[in-house]
Amino acid sequence: DTEVTQTPKHLVMGMTNKKSLKCEQHMGHRAMYWYKQKAKKPPELMFVYSYEKLSINESVPSRFSPECPNSSLLNLHLHALQPEDSALYLCASSQDASSLYEQYFGPGTRLTVT
Amino acid sequence: QKEVEQNSGPLSVPEGAIASLNCTYSDRGSQSFFWYRQYSGKSPELIMFIYSNGDKEDGRFTAQLNKASQYVSLLIRDSQPSDSATYLCAVNENTGNQFYFGTGTSLTVIP
Questions:
Q1: Which tens digit of pLDDT belongs to each residue from B34-91?
Q2: B51 and chain A in contact, CB less than 8 A
Q3: What number of other Cβ atoms are within 10 A of residue A63's Cβ?
Q4: B52 touches chain A (CB under 8 A)
Q5: pLDDT tens digits, residue range A56-94?
Q6: Is B96's CB within 8 Å of A56's CB?
Q7: Beta carbons of B103 and A41 less than 8 angstroms apart
Q8: Which residues of chain B are within 8 Å of residue A100 when distances are taken between CB atoms?
Q9: Strands of A14-86, DSSP E
Q10: Cα B110 to Cα B106: distance, rounded to the nearest angstrom
């Protein structure tokens, strides 16, 4: 089973709202990732968690706040977003954070900021 | 600056033909190489990965890696309309599990 799940599928939020995106995997993977993807562009890495610790933050604005409650779950807390933050947000996981392992992506959350 | 480059296309091939997708990368220390397929509005789906020089075959797909020339390619034999998608090349450099994605090649298979 190579399934990564994400909720919600779609989210519309105002610029003053607070919302959270959720990601879950049950493959025993120890590395999890958040990516942002705009239309017709490749995914852009936002955060990497390795063994539940944040290992990479790609200079993401503080209005995005990641959290890894346990090895299976990854959240992305959103606050005071801008319209330009509208995008597909992808979660991925891999066996661990070494250079060899493939990443499996969830279906994504389509976020619209109004 | 690590770079992964792909021809953005669009690439059009007739049904049943071989589609050839190419990717070059700048970091000689790169260890592993991945091909993802992404349908419009969907998330990337892993097709193949390759670590060693040479060819790796899986069904209608063949990945080819040449580290000396720093390129990796994907061949799709007997192309089907359902193969129409954007194909993303991803390269993983040797100091951590950080993928560098190419911009993707849009493939259209014409019935």
A1: 999 999 999 999 999 999 999 999 999 999 999 999 999 999 999 999 999 999 999 9
A2: yes
A3: 14
A4: no
A5: 888 899 999 999 999 999 999 999 999 999 999 999 999
A6: yes
A7: yes
A8: 31-32, 51, 92
A9: 18-25, 31-37, 44-50, 53-57, 64-70, 73-79
A10: 13
Q: How many residues does chain B have?
A: 111
Structure token pair of residue A12: 């519309």
Give contacts of A99 with chain B, Cβ < 8 Å.
Answer: 31-32, 92-97
Other beta carbons less than 10 A from residue A84's beta carbon: 8
- CA distance linking residue A50 with residue A45, whole number of Å: 14
Interchain proximity B32–A99, CB inside 8 Å = yes
Which chain A residue shows the shortest CA-CA distance from B30?
A: A99
Q: What are phi and psi of A82, to 5 degrees?
A: -110, 160
